């Protein structure tokens, strides 16, 4: 067992060394890194001992919370960073800012409800999907992002390798499953059935958020079995929120606006 020498009247240099060693042993990297600055500020602001201790501990807690959020965001597998703060609601009036900010509270995830983002390419679906997924990760929820075709391919491979139950269980455990680009490609019956199994595993237990460029009426092009299509739509809409992002591409409008700017 490692113990630190205890003595009164340490020099400043010895005290700093003892603090550094103690922080390493106790795994308090934020206090170790920030101690000198906080100590100097404590002297300047004439903090009490209790105030100084509280400042140290809050620094460590805040930094641990930040690192946990970063780990959850990384584990989600988002393809790029997107935030609600960076979304231009003025550019797409179809999307109600109040509704989105209500979703950012993640109460719908707590209630295991679904979310559907429906609209043409360039209308902000993926941005919104990633941003809301990021908000969920920052609030402590386990999140996983995937493309619809990638998920189906993974399920087909898992079935071939007799690992399907394990794979479905893994996707079933996360608090929020974000499925992007649903509807871009036709799925054969086997792939659609496997996707249906994932949705059934999560039904009313954990949330699913999807982004699709097809209205529900057009999903028969993706899920060619009408009964299976209807069952999937039911799973993804029951007690859920549907946001229609429209048909006017924000990306295309931005590109055109830049092209028309004077040189």
Folded structure, characterized:
- The protein has 263 residues and is α/β, with parallel strands linked by helices.
- 55% of the residues lie in helices and 11% in strands.
- The protein has eleven helices and five strands, in the order αααααβαβααβαβαβα.
- The chain has helices spanning 12-26, 29-45, 49-76, 97-103, 107-110, 125-138, 148-160, 164-173, 189-202, 226-237, 250-260; strands at 115-119, 143-147, 176-182, 207-212, 241-246.
- The protein has a five-stranded parallel beta sheet.
- The longest helix has 28 residues, at 49-76.
- The radius of gyration is 25 Å and the shape is elongated.
- The chain starts with 11 loop residues before the first helix and ends with a helix.
- The model has no long low-confidence stretch (mean pLDDT 88).
State the end-to-end CA separation: 71 Å
Write the element-wise H/E pattern from the N-terminal end onward.
HHHHHEHEHHEHEHEH
SS class? alpha/beta
Outline, from the CA principal axes? Answer: elongated
Sequence of strands across the biggest β-sheet: 2-3-4-1-5
Strand content: 5-15%
- What does the average pLDDT come to? 88
The count of helical stretches stands at: 11
Characteristics of this structure?
single chain; 263 residues; 11 helices; 5 strands; elongated
């Amino acid at each position: 067992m490692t113990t630190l020498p205890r003595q009164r009247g340490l020099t400043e240099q010895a005290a700093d060394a003892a603090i550094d060693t103690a922080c390493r042993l106790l795994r308090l990297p934020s206090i170790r890194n920030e101690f000198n600055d906080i100590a100097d500020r404590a002297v300047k602001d004439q903090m009490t001992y209790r105030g100084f201790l509280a400042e140290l501990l809050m620094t460590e807690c805040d930094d641990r919370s930040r690192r946990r959020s970063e780990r959850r965001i990384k584990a989600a597998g988002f393809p790029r960073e997107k935030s609600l703060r960076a979304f231009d609601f003025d550019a797409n009036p179809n999307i109600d800012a109040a509704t989105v900010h209500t979703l950012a509270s993640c109460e719908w995830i707590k209630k295991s409800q679904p979310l559907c983002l429906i609209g043409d390419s360039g209308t902000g679906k993926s941005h919104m999907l990633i941003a809301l997924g990021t908000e969920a990760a920052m609030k402590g929820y386990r999140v996983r992002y995937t493309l619809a075709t990638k998920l189906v391919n993974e399920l087909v491979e898992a079935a071939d390798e007799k690992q399907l139950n394990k794979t479905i269980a893994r996707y079933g455990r996360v608090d929020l499953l974000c499925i992007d680009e649903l509807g871009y490609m036709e799925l054969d019956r086997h792939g659609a059935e496997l996707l249906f199994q994932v949705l059934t595993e999560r039904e009313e237990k954990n949330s699913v958020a999807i982004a699709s460029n097809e209205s529900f009426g057009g999903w028969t092009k993706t899920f060619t079995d009408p009964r299976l299509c209807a069952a999937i739509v039911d799973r993804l809409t029951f007690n859920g929120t549907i946001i229609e992002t429209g048909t006017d591409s924000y990306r295309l409008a931005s590109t055109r606006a830049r092209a028309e700017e004077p040189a």
